[in-house]
Protein 1
Amino acid sequence: MQRRTFLKQSLVGGLSLASGPMFFPRAEFPLVRITDGQHFHWFGYYDKWQIDPTGRYALGARVPFEGRTPEATDKLSIGLIDLKNQNRWTELGTSRAWGWQQGCMLQWIPGSREEVIWNDREGGAYVSRIVNIRTKKQRTLPKAIYALSPNGQFAVGTEFNRIQNLRPGYGYAGLPDPYQAEKAPEAIGLYKMDLKTGKHNLLISIAEMARTPHQGKDVRDNWHWFNHLLVSPDSQRVLFLHRWRPELTDRQRMAATGFVTRMVTAGTDGQDRYIADPSGFSSHFVWRDPGHIFVWTKPMGQENGFWLLKDKTQESEKIGAEAMLVNGHNTYVPHTNHEWVLNDTYPQTEQRLQTLYLYHIPSKRKVVLGAFHAPADYKGEWRCDLHPRCDQQGKRVFFDSTHEGLGRQMYCIDIERIVRG
């Protein structure tokens, strides 16, 4: 869909709800748009560092269209936004390996003030680019990345063409899955890559996990893939979702349901594996500390909700039972001793409002920062989740939204007085 047509439809939907409840953020939490509104902008996923360690620079992505699946020839522009210089945009490069939900895995390398990384396509492979924002020097690593270790030394990844084959919108266009005829390939799975040398090795194959029974049942006769990788805060363990679906049809692949999920942890050598959540319902998650995982799930014999799971045990504790009632993209606000949670919701009510909020675990206090209208055109693969993320200081929240009728743009809210008050 071209920009003019898409914006016209979105603006009509937006204006019709402009006087509705909570269309704009609450007045006590001023909202700043950090992108120009003349292009479509967003960051991507909620568990990556968008803001540099100094708090001055934000990363973002820009495209000239919305409302359709990216094609192999569609390029994404990667930019650096100077938050202290009128949000000035400086282009850093481009990518041909991206999707609407997670972008191109753009992020700052942990601990660095100068180096950023993102995924791209080169020849017949997905690769990753590391760029120094000051010297503009670029180097290319031979594999795409999914998540980085907090110590900044290595990345973990899985094959994005496999994801695209089995869950379109979370992988990349351009390269077919060479194992599309195999339900559980031995040759691919979870890999680890050194960020300096590019040396990489397979840690856990998809076939290995497929051979592991699920709740006592054999699940090998399904179509398997890995998704949503994250390294523990001490860089010693990796967490990932192992998913499978019984059928391989276009309808099944495009469905948001129809697959089973289990959450797995392992050492960063691929050993010491543990089914951290065998329920089949694991969704969004984040590590709290090296021994605990904060996840939306439905533990065995329990109810839906956000749960704190202790790794390598079946111990669990429900969090926010009275206030965090629906699934969202949950993280901890940095430097708050894991007391404050940042979260959002999918579009709710007839007004399709996405709520952005903070939750204080000790006091059970919920602070709604605002609710933002998502026009009906934003659905399925090209929906625009808020995907809220904090800066590294824990003072500001950044998120993607379509509520102004300008297509997807990026916004900021200062939360320092709330979490430090």
Note: The chain is about 10% helix and 35% strand.
Protein 2
Amino acid sequence: MELEFDDGLRRLEPLRALSVYRVVQESLSNALKHAPGQPLEVRLTRSGGAVRVHVRNRLVTAPGPAGQGISGMRERVDLLGGSFRAEPDGEGGFTVDAVVPERGGPR
């Protein structure tokens, strides 16, 4: 697994930090379920007043029925006024991208 993150993420307000944590947690859980043993990259960056989460597994080897994980991630990010995308990457893998604004209250 490849992990990259900005040190400034430690100062996020608790609700936003929890949302970022849960997106990464669910993305990793999905990767273990649908792409066990495959390379995985996780990037957490802070720029433009937002935290950007990028999780990509390179090869889906065990596709299965959809659960509630992706819709739960989307809902969590939407409530904070962010954006969320989860989709096949066109190369056999799967990518989750979320942007969580640093400011502003839940919708």
Note: The chain has a mean pLDDT of 88.
Protein 3
Amino acid sequence: MSTEKEPISVTILDREYQFACLPEERAALKEAAELLDGRMREIKATGNLMALERIAVMTALNMSNELIELRKVGVAREEQVDRRIRMLADELEGALGDPID
């Protein structure tokens, strides 16, 4: 694993941006740039927002909202798994007759 950052170029809305990242982070950065480019193009295609800055802010807000929603789903799923584990532990405790610590 290298600790030397290397230059990388990505294109977002037909503009090239230069970054420096570790070699093992290159693929993730390219994937993130491609996702961002696609989302920004979707917003630009609506024709309502034309300034790059406004497109970027709207895209960031949409992606932030998606992240918040995913976190909520993750927390709900975690709580559901915890309840199921407690229920199974209670059933096991009842079947064995001894408390489980």
Note: The radius of gyration is 23 Å.
